[in-house]
């Protein structure tokens, strides 16, 4: 059952003491006006059982096997069902799953080879499945209003006529997507091609997918869902386990990171402050590797990084930290731990050039979009350009083949947002009037917008015609209505 709080409470939890203008500050406990149902001053917000970190191994996400291969396509049968999972040690949690996996398994696909995904709904609720970051015909996009009922099935066809990318699939049923994803309906979809496979990057067992998120548990181990509950969701999960460890060899590893949280932004760093190399983002490999000592991921963003553990002696234990709140830093400041347990040969390397992106086409149009969340009539409401989502309204008409520059602004001064477009990968042109860093030099489908920030992006609409959505991918915000429709005609 969804519980709604006043937005002023939500703003105090997600914004105050965390984001200032376009910057973020180190992790701290949010300290703003208390909720009506909050404990008395000086008492901790109830956030469920504490978990001793680094007691369980990081699970490797299962790779799904096609049920059939025919007509040059791989066919998957996936049953969405309720099950129970041991997330917290010794406790059983009710979850929603794709084929019983929490989180969902990995679909491995190849550019130019279609995937047919037959989804069978046994959840007891309506659902819609969106392949996030994919260029697909409108009938297979997983529109928020294109749901199918429990006890029925739907077939989605993904042509994969796009370059390599680390995509993911998740529920998108409007007003329910936030809770359905929170309870487990998400999985990874790794699309590869000749360009990616030709590179000597870490591969096989040294290429690890990690889905990050947060959660709020009751004392009985059950997931608690409260709309805009940024503070309560203070247990950090990696591949469905709290604060796991991963045994690694003293060599290079590729980590495909996904922020599958509804609200939480991660600012990731290694505890010793050492650098790592970002090689990819939402739409696949960057043009060139980007060396950094921190990584900011807003909800739904992905990043591929390479960590070289050969610089550490066997026996080293290295924590991956999160330096953003809200929440108690003892709970939200740790993500997972790498334990260097052996030496290993390493033929992999990160070349200085990873890919060549095609030149941007001439601009055919310009548009501006303002994102805002506010209290309207006592209820939280999200808007784009002052309008709440209306599935009967087309907000943006786009000629097929157009290449447009969109200027997107977060007009809130104390609440972060981000911006996701269905159908297309785009290029970030500017952030706050400046050229983007190397981390945003590649193809993107979701872009972070801290309070007051403005981002310019260019998207080209030359794949499919039809009506698609764009929205804030803080799913609690899109569930409040921060979403709009575009028609490519």
Roughly how many Å apart are the termini?
Answer: 39 Å
Number of strands: 34
SS field, number of helical segments: 5
Mean pLDDT: 91
Strand content: 35-45%
Helix content: under 10%
Unreliable sequence segments: 1-44
Characterize the largest beta sheet: strand count, sense, and whether it forms a barrel: 7 strands, mixed
Tag the structure with descriptive keywords.
single chain; 489 residues; mainly beta; seven-stranded mixed sheet; six-stranded mixed sheet; 5 helices; 34 strands; disordered N terminus
Task: Give a short summary of the structure.
6% of the residues lie in helices and 42% in strands.
Task: Give the helix/strand layout.
Blueprint: H1 7-14, E1 19-20, E2 23-24, E3 68-70, E4 73-85, E5 93-98, E6 106-110, E7 115-122, E8 129-132, E9 153-158, E10 165-171, H2 177-182, E11 186-192, H3 194-197, E12 207-215, E13 235-238, E14 241-242, E15 245-250, E16 252-259, E17 266-270, E18 276-281, E19 284-292, E20 295-297, E21 302-308, E22 317-322, H4 329-332, E23 334-343, E24 365-376, E25 379-384, E26 396-398, E27 403-410, E28 417-421, E29 426-431, E30 443-444, E31 446-449, E32 454-460, E33 466-471, H5 475-479, E34 483-488
Explain what this protein looks like in three dimensions.
It is a single chain. The chain is mainly beta and 489 residues long. The protein has five helices and 34 strands. Strands 14-13-12-16-21-18-19 form a seven-stranded mixed sheet, with no helix packed on it. It has a six-stranded mixed sheet with strand order 25-24-27-32-29-30. It is globular, with a radius of gyration of 21 Å. The relative contact order is 0.16. The model is unreliable at 1-44 (pLDDT under 50).
């Amino acid at each position: 059952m969804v519980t709604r709080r006043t937005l002023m409470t939500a703003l105090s939890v997600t914004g105050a003491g965390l984001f200032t203008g376009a910057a973020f500050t180190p992790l701290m406990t949010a300290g703003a006006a208390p909720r009506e149902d909050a404990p008395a001053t000086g008492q901790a917000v109830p956030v469920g059982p504490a978990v001793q970190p680094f007691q369980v191994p990081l699970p490797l996400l299962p790779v799904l096997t096609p049920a059939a291969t025919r007509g040059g396509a791989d066919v998957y049968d996936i049953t969405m069902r309720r099950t129970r999972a041991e997330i917290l040690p010794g406790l059983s949690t009710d979850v929603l799953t794709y084929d019983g996996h929490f989180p969902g398994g990995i679909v491995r696909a190849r550019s130019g080879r279609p995937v047919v995904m037959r989804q069978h709904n046994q959840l007891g609720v309506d659902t819609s499945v969106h392949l996030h970051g994919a260029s697909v015909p409108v009938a297979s996009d997983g529109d928020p209003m294109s749901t199918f009922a429990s006890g029925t099935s739907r077939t989605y066809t993904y042509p994969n006529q796009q370059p390599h990318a680390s995509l993911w699939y998740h529920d998108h049923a409007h007003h329910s997507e936030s809770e359905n994803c929170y309870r487990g309906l998400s999985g990874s979809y790794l699309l590869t091609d000749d360009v990616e496979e030709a590179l000597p990057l870490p591969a096989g067992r040294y290429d690890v997918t990690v889905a990050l998120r947060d959660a709020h548990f009751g004392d009985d181990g059950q997931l608690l869902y409260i709309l805009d509950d940024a503070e309560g969701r203070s247990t950090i999960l990696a591949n469905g386990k709290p604060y796991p460890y991963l045994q690694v060899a003293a060599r290079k590893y590729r980590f495909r990171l996904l922020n599958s949280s509804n609200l939480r932004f991660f600012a990731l760093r290694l505890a010793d402050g050492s650098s790592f190399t970002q090689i990819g983002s939402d739409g696949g490999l960057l043009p060139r590797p980007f060396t950094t000592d921190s990584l900011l991921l807003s909800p739904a963003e992905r990043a591929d990084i390479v960590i070289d553990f050969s610089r550490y002696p066997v026996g080293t234990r290295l924590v991956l930290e999160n330096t953003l709140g809200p929440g108690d830093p003892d709970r939200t400041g740790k993500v997972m731990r790498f334990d260097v347990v052996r030496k290993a040969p390493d033929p992999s390397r990160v070349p200085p050039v990873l890919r060549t992106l095609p030149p941007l086409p001439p601009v055919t149009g310009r548009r501006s979009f303002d994102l805002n969340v506010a209290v309207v009539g006592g209820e939280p409401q999200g808007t784009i350009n002052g309008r709440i989502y209306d599935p009967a309204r087309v907000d943006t008409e786009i000629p097929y083949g157009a290449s447009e520059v969109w200027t997107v602004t977060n007009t809130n001064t104390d609440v972060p947002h981000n911006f996701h477009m269905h159908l297309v990968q785009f290029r970030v042109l500017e952030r706050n009037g400046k050229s983007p860093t190397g981390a945003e030099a590649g193809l993107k489908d979701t872009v972070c917008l801290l309070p007051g920030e403005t981002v310019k992006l260019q998207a080209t609409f030359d794949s499919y015609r039809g009506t698609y959505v764009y929205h804030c991918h803080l799913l609690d915000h899109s569930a409040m209505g921060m979403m709009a429709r575009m028609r490519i005609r």
